[in-house]
Write a structure and sequence with these properties.
- The complex is a heterodimer of chains A (253) and B (441).
- Chain A contains 13 helices and no strands.
- Chain A is mostly helical and 253 residues long.
- Chain A has one domain.
- In chain A, helix 2 packs across helix 5, helix 2 packs across helix 8 and helix 3 crosses helix 5.
- The longest helix of chain A has 26 residues.
- Chain A is globular.
- The termini of chain A are far apart.
- Chain B has 441 residues and is of the alpha+beta class.
- Chain B folds into three domains: 95 residues, Phosphorylase Kinase, domain 1, CATH 3.30.200.20; 172 residues, Transferase(Phosphotransferase), domain 1 (Orthogonal Bundle), CATH 1.10.510.10; 120 residues, no CATH class.
- Chain B is built from 18 helices and eight strands.
- A five-stranded antiparallel beta sheet of chain B has the order 1-2-3-5-4, sandwiched between helices.
- In chain B, a hairpin with a 2-residue loop joins strand 4 and strand 5.
- The longest helix of chain B has 28 residues.
- The chains are: A mainly alpha (253), B alpha+beta (441).
- The structure holds zinc ion (ZN).
């Protein structure tokens, strides 16, 4: 499936809207879109499950079992429509799954042994702190943001770097690393001049370069977020919500 | 901002950074960079490198306003980046440059100063004085505005309008959002003349839902709403009337509305000012903003004729008048009888003077028919008492008796009562008219 990269206003069909609007798409399309979304956004689920489970093995089983059940369900479109956002849908569904699994025992957690998605749990395990002061929900939201931004950066870097021969690609890779910090915020005083000196470019050229990079970053981020909401108009809201959730400071236990 | 220590919060956005970082960067800042506001701030920073751009402090149909710092002067400013859909209209930039010059010459303590303006790469911006404070909408929403405060603000608004009008600049979009108050409580009116420039006044044909968000039809004069080609400074006076009404009552006059004093405890003479400002025809409004100010200040100086009696019924008023009239009737009668009966006429007779005075003065304030009869009676009795005293006096000095007579006459003088009666009549008439006018508007 190709990634929508144009501005969110230009396309109507986002992945989550594909899943949620049953009337407009075949069940195969819906299934593919959902699987694609799950493949990206499983780490937050794992982080949440990890807090609820006794150990990392149980958390892995919970997540795989959850996906097994999620992907074989037929009523997902109805359920999804009721919850506007993929994020909200996932966390609620996972909570239900965890409750059910506790009642049914280990076999249900594993979902009958099948592993529908191949997921790098070891990497996910390294990235979370199972004993931090955050609530499982806070961890879920934070991991969501990190996952989302990782995805965006992967695409942004690919686009920026993949041009010309190997030699040029190496040079562009280096340039990307130097320019990258400017995406997060207005560069501190004088730093643009430093970048210009490092790259052997004029101040004006660096300014233009940063501007383009940021603009492209923004497009990719918004497209990525649009994929997880039912309507493109919800993108601004979702970003604001994620921002608020991420800034919420953990309570000191 | 981007270089961060472990186990801290981001200095720029406040996000905790202990475990989660993306590419070594703050996820909070990265999310923020994806918001539309970030795009504007960034555009500004790129277009105007001589300014340090801070947060967005306002957003409306005309564009977004950012707080910023002019690096060379270490001066805080507010930069308005005009909405792109307006700027891209053919000929806009030329018209903007021409008209912005007229705005930049406005120099008044109650008007937000335009420091600079220009266009870069197809974007149009205005650099303005930064007002550290709140706008009127904010104040009203928090219910922090008393009618007294409203009365103190309106003259300042009038001064600003009068100043601009004298220089040929009409605001065209007076509304609570554009009336700022700095930390010292001083009024600063923002966005003078911009409405015309932005052509936000929809005519009747194009008044759509989106326009209603963009412009401010709620505060528009009838001639603006109708899309009249001739809009002059009196449109501002109408909008001021609306704002004034809202400040006093907390609501906008819509359809059939009550005069303000019917809704809140107010000097009813203010109804005149508000309703005259709200006259449908510009010719029947105040013709200058300064006249509104003068009218308010006049009311402020002159005490009201009658305390506001919207709480008491007319029956109560009447009963009170009767009581007074009876009292005044009894006093001179007693004085008269006492004077005849006793040789010690002195202190008793003296009573009739204040009695006659009060009797003839007090009821005339809120004269109605029965009270008038009593006043006349009182006056006659007083005269009788006087004659009786003079007769009993015999040997006393006729000069003293004459003084008593003149004093009684003066206190209840027909002339004085006539004046008061006229005033009271006017007041009644005006209340009635205001009610009718409000109902018709
Ligand atoms: Zn940050």
């Amino acid at each position: 499936m190709s990634t929508p990269t144009s501005s969110p206003r230009d396309f109507i069909t986002t992945r989550w809207s594909l899943v949620a609007c049953a009337g407009d798409s075949s069940s195969d399309e819906r299934h593919a879109a959902l699987a694609q979304l799950c493949k990206v956004y499983w780490p937050p689920l794992y982080a949440f499950a990890r807090r609820r489970a006794a150990n990392d093995h149980e958390a892995r089983d919970l997540v795989q079992g959850f996906f097994a059940r999620l992907l074989e369900r037929n009523d997902i479109a109805v359920a999804a429509r009721e919850r506007g956002r993929f994020r909200a849908y996932l966390i609620t569904a996972l909570k239900h799954h965890i409750i059910n699994a506790a009642e049914l025992g280990r076999a249900a957690k594993r979902g009958g042994g099948a592993a529908p998605l191949s997921l790098d749990f070891d990497d996910a395990e390294r990235r979370i702190d199972p004993s931090g002061p955050e609530t499982p929900e806070e961890i879920f939201d934070r991991q969501w943001v990190v996952t989302l931004l990782d995805e965006v950066f992967t695409k942004l870097r690919d686009e920026f770097v993949t041009r010309g021969d190997k030699h040029e690609q190496d040079a562009r890779e280096e340039r990307f690393e130097i320019l990258k910090p400017s995406i997060a915020g207005a560069a501190p005083h004088g730093s643009q001049a430093d970048i210009a000196a490092t790259l052997g470019l004029t101040d004006g050229a660096v300014r233009a370069l940063i501007h383009r990079l940021r603009a492209r970053y923004r497009e990719l981020l918004r497209a990525e977020v649009a994929d997880t909401v039912a309507h493109p108009d919800d993108v601004d809201d979702e970003i604001a919500l994620l921002f608020a959730a991420f800034r919420k400071r953990p309570r000191i236990a | 901002m981007t270089a961060v220590d472990h186990d801290t919060t981001c200095a720029s956005c406040g996000a905790p950074l202990s475990a989660s970082r993306v590419e070594g960067l703050c996820p909070g800042c990265l999310l923020r960079a994806g918001m539309p506001q970030a795009a504007e701030a960034e555009t500004l920073a790129r277009l105007l490198p001589q300014y340090e751009i801070f947060e967005c402090i306002g957003r409306g149909g005309m564009g977004a306003v950012h707080r910023a710092r002019q690096k060379s002067l270490h001066r805080e400013v507010a930069i308005k980046l005009l909405a792109q859909e307006v700027v891209e209209r053919p000929g806009f930039i030329e018209r903007f440059e021409r008209e912005a010059r007229a705005l930049a010459i406005l120099n008044h303590p109650n008007i937000v100063v335009v420091h600079d303006f220009g266009s870069v790469e197809g974007h149009v911006y205005l650099v303005m004085e930064y007002v550290d404070g709140v706008n009127l909408r904010h104040l009203m929403r928090q219910k922090q505005l008393t009618p007294e405060q409203a009365l103190a603000l309106v003259p300042q608004i009038c001064e600003a309008l009068q100043y601009a009008h004298e220089r040929g600049v009409v605001h065209r979009d007076i509304k609570p959002e554009n009336i700022l108050l700095d930390k010292d409580g001083r009024v600063k009116i923002a966005d003078f003349g911009l409405a015309k420039l932005m052509n936000l006044e929809p005519d009747a044909r194009t008044l759509t839902a989106s326009h209603q968000v963009m412009g401010t039809p709620r505060y528009m004069s009838p001639e603006q709403a109708e899309g009249s080609p001739i809009i002059d400074h009196r449109a501002d006076i109408y909008s001021l009337g609306l704002v004034f009404y809202e400040m006093l009552t907390g609501e906008l006059p819509m359809g059939r509305f009550e005069p303000p004093s019917e809704l809140v405890d107010l000097d009813s003479r203010l109804d005149d000012v508000v309703l005259k400002s709200l006259a449908k025809s510009p010719d029947r409004r105040y013709q200058h903003a300064s006249e509104v100010k003068t009218a308010i200040e006049h009311i402020d100086r002159e005490p009201p004729i009658a305390p506001d009696t919207s709480g008491t019924t007319l029956e109560g008023e009447e009963a009170e008048n009767m009581l007074w009239a009876c009292l005044c009737l009894i006093m001179p009668v007693l004085a008269y009888m006492g004077a005849v009966w006793a040789e010690s006429w002195w202190p008793l007779a003296a009573l009739f003077l204040p009695g006659a005075g009060i009797g003839s003065y007090y009821p005339s304030k809120t004269l109605d028919h029965s009270a008038q009869i009593f006043v006349a009676l009182t006056f006659l009795m007083s005269m009788g008492a006087l004659i009786g005293v003079m007769w009993a006096l015999e040997s006393a000095s006729p000069l003293f008796a004459l003084m008593l007579f003149v004093g009684g006459l003066a206190s209840g003088s027909e002339e004085e009562r006539e004046r008061l009666r006229k005033k009271a009549k006017e007041e009644k008439k005006r209340r009635k008219q205001n009610k009718e006018r409000a109902a018709n508007a």
